[in-house]
Design a protein that fits this description.
7 strands, alpha/beta, globular
């Protein structure tokens, strides 16, 4: 039995939800039609160099549909695929889901709770799209429902953030995470492994800064290059600037990180998949997330190690 209370060698997202809700719960992605200050000209046009929301958005998520309709269609789909789930979380995933006036946020998020099966919301956003009034509202909402804010941080290095056109620095992310956690709201963060200019030693050194953040969950994704992005152009022009992981190499690298990650931090994801039609760089073929998780857990057993094994 590991410190998080089960036999898995890492603090799993499914285990976290079982402890939180007492049963299986399923996330449903929602596109509520928000934009991003990095796309509409407030900060920049075109977004971050890697950004392709289409590559990760389920087919039922279209901003022309209401939040309620998207959730109803998602529930129907998942009821057929995951019969164990009878409660759901609305995952506001596309673009920056706090980038709007507070009144609009209240209207959009309230619509999710019109469905009795929805137990809470996960709000994906940028750390520069949050403020005290919005956090106070979400903290009040969290008194009645499950609420998590998930920040795209991507890297702890300001030079990298500048190169990928994030238009905020790491201190901005630090302030947002701390202000959110101070209000008792669970906080998630997303990081990309393999961004141009970052060595593997740099990626490993980030673990100390991640451990110091008051996070509840963390996501790691391998770098993927998508058609139509600025990064695809950069890769075409200067392929030698990019280094990619093979799948087994990547799994071993993530385990190296995981051994140093504090045990209470929930590992939500360690890799991502996207349809081949969006890919513009090297891929791992048609391997699915379930297969990646299986290989990941098998490798943990082979190495006889676990999350936090080297955490101090």
């Amino acid at each position: 039995m590991y410190p998080w209370g089960d036999e898995r060698r890492y603090n799993s997202y499914s285990g976290y939800f079982r402890r939180t809700f007492g049963s299986r719960i399923q996330k449903l992605s929602v596109n509520a039609g928000f934009s991003c200050p990095n796309r509409d000209g407030t900060l920049s046009y075109g977004g971050c160099t890697f950004c392709s929301n289409e590559a990760f958005t389920p087919s039922y998520c279209r901003p022309g549909k209401s939040v309620r309709q998207q959730l109803q269609e998602g529930i129907e789909f998942h009821r057929n695929r995951y019969r164990q789930a009878d409660r759901y979380l609305a995952y506001f995933q596309s673009f920056s889901n706090t980038y709007a006036p507070l009144d609009r946020l209240k209207t959009v998020f309230a619509e999710a709770f019109e469905l009795p099966e929805v137990a809470g919301i996960i709000v994906g956003t940028r750390p520069d799209c949050i403020d005290g009034r919005k956090l106070d509202y979400l903290a009040e909402l969290a008194q009645r429902y499950y609420v998590t804010i998930e920040y795209g941080i991507e890297s702890c290095y300001d030079k990298t953030l500048q190169e990928i056109n994030r238009r905020h620095d790491f201190d901005c992310a630090l302030r947002a995470v701390e202000a959110t956690a101070a209000r008792g709201i669970p906080v998630g963060a997303h990081f990309i492994l393999g961004l141009p200019g970052e060595t593997r030693a740099m990626m490993q050194d980030q673990v100390g800064r991640i451990n110091a953040l008051p996070l509840t969950t963390v996501k790691f994704h391998q770098l993927q290059i998508f058609k139509g992005t600025r990064m695809a152009e950069m890769y075409r022009e200067h392929p030698a600037d990019f280094q990619f992981f093979g799948v087994d190499e990547y799994i071993d690298f993530v385990i190296d990180l995981l051994e140093r990650i504090r045990p209470d931090l929930v590992l939500e994801r360690f890799a991502s998949e996207a349809p081949p039609r969006y890919q513009a760089g090297p891929t791992w073929g048609l391997i699915r997330n379930e297969q990646l998780w299986s290989r990941f857990e098998c490798r943990l057993r082979e190495r006889d190690t676990f999350q936090g094994a080297l955490f101090r």
